[in-house]
């Protein structure tokens, strides 16, 4: 099989490419240039897509013995990931840029180009597994080691994309084993730090970055009854569940801390309240997809688990498609869920599908 290996310059994608070669596939490595002005060097675990990353990927490809190319996806990345991130924050939502990158860059733009060039599959270093059922349908499942499982950020993949995807690291027990394998293969990235934070905000200052790209304007901080408690310098700087940085200036009547409950970009206000008001009884979104085969009758409520963050624990729930939305009711309230986040639905270890959250229903009405 002709396989295009996406090589980020990290240890996971390098070992995944090497394993694809050992499996007998005809492999070509490609590094995606996602920044118009890539930095020369990383700062520890911060940043990615730098010139250093590209060089690390090339060195790995040379040792593995595969052809290597750099593809410029910077314009597509800006439109589909960076601009989307800005638009979502401007609308008062909390986006997940890694989900958008997997959906629109690695498994849409990249896979589309790979298929046009005659490749059969795209291989990445994600920790997830693909299982083929008795009828030949491909399913996305958690990796064997939940501590490193990355199936959540792949929940946006469709059946067609799964049909052309490879995740050689899915059955690997630990990241330590991958690093040891890389060292044995004499790959220089064996001990390279993992990337963290948002790749296009390498200094980690999301608030400052948004202020520069969205703009700052003073607005009101309100309680749930609409009373003005203070002011802020830009609603985009706040996310649901946030406690620090409110600077209201005086305590609540009961002396308990306040948390951000809602961000209203249209009138540039932030609503705050007690922690228990963050409990959410229902989430729903119209932008949902199925990872593989859809349920036979999605309009009929079905038992599942829902995960709302990459490193959150899954929560038992009941889901159904209703009035054009995927509606999910957890058995116990979720805490601090914001529109714009992604809810991934599991049945056992299988990723059934996902939705971008459009609305939430509080478990504690005003």
What is the secondary structure topology, with strand pairs?
Elements: E1 2-6, H1 11-22, E2 26-33, H2 51-64, E3 68-72, H3 74-90, H4 97-116, E4 121-123, E5 128-132, E6 138-142, H5 159-162, E7 165-166, H6 175-184, H7 206-214, E8 219-222, E9 228-232, E10 259-264, E11 269-273, E12 279-285, E13 287-290, E14 302-307, E15 315-322, E16 325-330, E17 334-335, E18 342-347, E19 350-356, E20 359-362
Parallel strand pairs: 1-2, 1-4, 2-3, 4-7, 8-11
Antiparallel strand pairs: 5-6, 6-19, 8-9, 10-11, 12-16, 12-17, 12-20, 13-19, 14-15, 14-18, 15-16, 18-19
Helix pairs in contact: 1-2, 1-6, 3-4
Report on the architecture of this protein:
The protein has helices spanning 11-22, 51-64, 74-90, 97-116, 159-162, 175-184, 206-214; strands at 2-6, 26-33, 68-72, 121-123, 128-132, 138-142, 165-166, 219-222, 228-232, 259-264, 269-273, 279-285, 287-290, 302-307, 315-322, 325-330, 334-335, 342-347, 350-356, 359-362. The protein has 366 residues and is of the alpha+beta class. It folds into three domains: 2-125 and 168-184, HUPs (Rossmann fold, 3-Layer(aba) Sandwich); 216-273, SH3 type barrels; 278-362, Beta Barrel (Elongation Factor Tu (Ef-tu), domain 3). Strands 5, 6, 12, 13, 14, 15, 16, 17, 18, 19 and 20 form an eleven-stranded antiparallel β-sheet that branches. The protein has a five-stranded parallel β-sheet with strand order 3-2-1-4-7, sandwiched between helices. A hairpin with a 5-residue loop joins strand 5 and strand 6. Helix 1 packs parallel to helix 2 (51-64), helix 1 packs across helix 6 (175-184) and helix 3 (74-90) runs antiparallel to helix 4. It is globular, with a radius of gyration of 22 Å. The chain starts with a strand and ends with a strand. The model is unreliable at 40-47 (pLDDT under 50). Its EC number is 2.8.1.13. Keywords: ATP-binding, Cytoplasm, Disulfide bond, Nucleotide-binding, RNA-binding, Transferase, tRNA processing, tRNA-binding. InterPro entries: MnmA-like, MnmA-like_C, MnmA-like_central, MnmA-like_central_sf, Rossmann-like_a/b/a_fold. Residues 148-150 are annotated as: Interaction with tRNA. It is found in: Cytoplasm.
